[in-house]
Amino acid sequence: MTQTITLIEGDGIGPEITAQVVRVLQALQLPLTFDRQTLGQTALEQTGSLIPETTLQSIRKNHIALKAPCTTPVGQGFRSVNVQLRLAFDLYANIRPARSLEGVKTRYENVDLIIFRENTEDLYIGEERKIDEDTIEAIKRITRPASQRIIQAAFEYAAAHQRKKVTCVHKANILKQSDGLFLRIFREIAAQYPQIEATDLNVDNACMQMVMHPEQFDVMVMPNLYGDILSDLSSGLIGGLGLLPGVNRNEEIAIFEAVHGSAPDIAGKNLANPTALLQSACMMLDHLGYGDAAQRIHKALVSVLCDTPIRTRDLGGTATTTAFTDALIARL
Ligand code: NAI
Ligand code: MG
To answer: Which terms in the Gene Ontology molecular function aspect does this entry carry (predicted)?
Structure first.
């Protein structure tokens, strides 16, 4: 049966990397079709809406989307497109695996961690209020149900994938009530998985530990803001934002997307690294039961990186987005 995937080209470098990822997927001749939809700046220009209803309907119908980064116009009072999309479908888990890639030289060799970021609350609920001209407050909301389901998802993943350790990242020494609740729930759930080691770290210490000894981390779970920051940090451990894939999901709907943004500084120049979106597509293939196809892509990627000097500028090379993808497709 042909699977239809909602495809969102996004803004900035989005259309360039999407085109390349689609080329790779088409080269594999899988029974996949794409339902192209718009979101973000492009959608606003074309339809007058940042999040068109047709895009939401398509995702609701297909349950699967592959999404390139989108730009939210700044200073016009718009709420982040990405945050809104995640909230619209209650995609509570943002899962971001950072794994050292053979052929990419970094300071570390054996990074293999996976971040479970709570995706619906914390400081991202967007409740800021003006007290007076010089004073603004932002609300950080942590609830039991939202914390419970993301922490449970992290432990379930660890158990299903023979992972040994789950680390909770928080700032409960200062945010005693909010992060304190998250940490308490973590300990409650950890007790149900005696075979998995459970540890916790304050977020500042976690940053230092990740930079010093990232190999010690396995599954990590944390509230929204820390997850946003630590996932960019973890991309730095494996070679940069051009590599890190991710998914926003719940039990019904999964939107696969790279961790990086629309990179306006390099947009339209054929310079972007398509790997992060491609690895997100590989996560999507795994999810759809095409694990073999995902493996083929991964092998071709590693072959380009190990056997040739062909790489995009972010990885120290001079290849264009298209030339890099050409080399990868030739090795599929
Ligand atoms: P960014 O991730 O777009 O860029 C940060 C740096 O990484 C830039 O120097 C960029 O050139 C580089 N970079 C990112 N992806 C790359 C790739 N594939 N290949 C090579 N270099 C890459 O973050 P920034 O500048 O903070 O945000 C730009 C825009 O993206 C904003 O409008 C932001 O709201 C949006 N954004 C969208 C996201 C999404 O749609 N999921 C996530 C993050 C940001
Ligand atoms: Mg981010």
So the answer is: isocitrate dehydrogenase (NAD+) activity; magnesium ion binding; NAD binding
Per-residue pLDDT reduced to its tens digit, 180-192: 999 999 999 999 9
User: Does the CB atom of residue 262 touch ligand 1 within 6 A?
Assistant: yes
The pair of three-digit structure tokens given for residue 71, joined into one six-digit string:
């730009």
178 lines ligand 1 (CB under 6 A): no
CA distance to 49, 60, 134, 136, 169, per residue, from 186 (Å): 39, 31, 37, 31, 10
75-111 burial, b at 16+ Cβ within 10 Å, e below that, comes to eeeeeebbbebbbebebbbbbbbbbbbebbebeeeeb
Indicate the Cα dihedral angle 17, 280, 299, 18, nearest 10°.
-20
pLDDT in tens, 64-118: 999 999 999 998 888 899 989 999 999 999 999 999 999 999 999 999 999 999 9
Q: Residue 102 domain-assigned?
A: no
The preferred substitution site among 224, 232, 243, 262 for testing ligand 1, maximizing ligand atoms within 8 Å of CB, is 262
Of the listed ligands, the closest to the CA of 246 is: 1
Is 134 an active-site residue? no
What residue has token string 């990086």?
A: 260
Is 318 inside a domain boundary?
yes
Question: Do residues 152 and 228 share a domain?
Answer: yes
Closest protein CA for atom 40 of ligand 1: 69
Ligand 1 atom closest to Cα of 258? 41
Determine whether the shortest distance from the Cβ of 273 to ligand 1 is under 6 A.
yes
Whole-structure pTM over 0.90, yes or no? yes
Domain count, the chain: 2
Distance CA 209, CA 196 (A): 20
The finding on whether 230 has its CB within 6 A of some atom of ligand 1 is no
| Ligand 2 geometric centre to CA of 194 (Å) | 33
Question: Could you report the predicted ipTM of this complex, rounded to two decimals?
Answer: 0.98
* Whether residues 252 and 270 fall in one domain: yes
Report if residue 152 sits inside a domain. yes
